[in-house]
Specification:
Blueprint (H helix, E strand, L loop, with lengths): L5 E4 L2 E4 L15 E7 L6 E8 L12 E8 L5 E6 L4 E10 L18 E3 L13 H4 L1 E3 L4 E6 L7
Parallel strand pairs: 3-10
Antiparallel strand pairs: 1-2, 3-6, 4-5, 4-7, 7-8, 7-9
Length: 155
């Protein structure tokens, strides 16, 4: 699937800026090939890439290497993110249902919108995850990961 610089949304145009577009998928390239599961056709999905260069800044703006936004869809979403070198990386993301470019949260800071981390860890307590829980290795031929969105809004 290719992504356009602007995506159609049920209520009109949903801008996806060029700087937020994923990279072209190339089999065997040094890139992360992501399959996002459990999204629906409403809004957009946002992913953020982090590396082990700044593990303490995981989930912080200063630690983010790259941001990707794509239109949401009902079937799995496949996209690619190029990386400069092999290493340990982690991805965090969420399904921005209302396309306001923010993760909506409840009063207790639990996400109202479906979210996820690479490695798809299960969380038993309300706490900020650390880099190692979501980290995975990317070699010269890249890596393929499944990214599962979890909806806690029903809790």
């Amino acid at each position: 699937m290719s992504f356009e610089a602007s995506a159609h949304h049920e209520t009109g145009e949903l801008p996806i800026y060029e700087r937020d577009l994923p990279d072209q998928c190339i089999p065997g390239a040094q890139q992360i090939r992501v399959t996002i599961k459990d999204a629906t056709h409403v809004g957009m999905v946002k992913l953020e890439l982090y590396s082990d260069a700044k593990p303490k800044d995981f989930l912080e703006k200063d630690g983010r290497l790259r941001r990707i936004r794509v239109p949401a869809q009902d079937e799995p979403i496949s996209l690619c993110i190029n990386v400069d070198k092999p290493g340990r990386y982690a991805i965090a993301g969420y399904h921005d249902l209302d396309a306001d470019r923010r993760l909506d949260k409840k009063w207790n800071f639990k996400p109202k919108e479906p979210y996820g981390l690479s490695n798809n860890p299960k969380f038993k307590t309300a706490r900020k995850p650390d880099f190692d829980e979501a980290a995975f290795d990317v070699g010269p031929a890249g890596a393929d990961i499944d990214f599962i969105l979890v909806d806690l809004s029903k809790d």
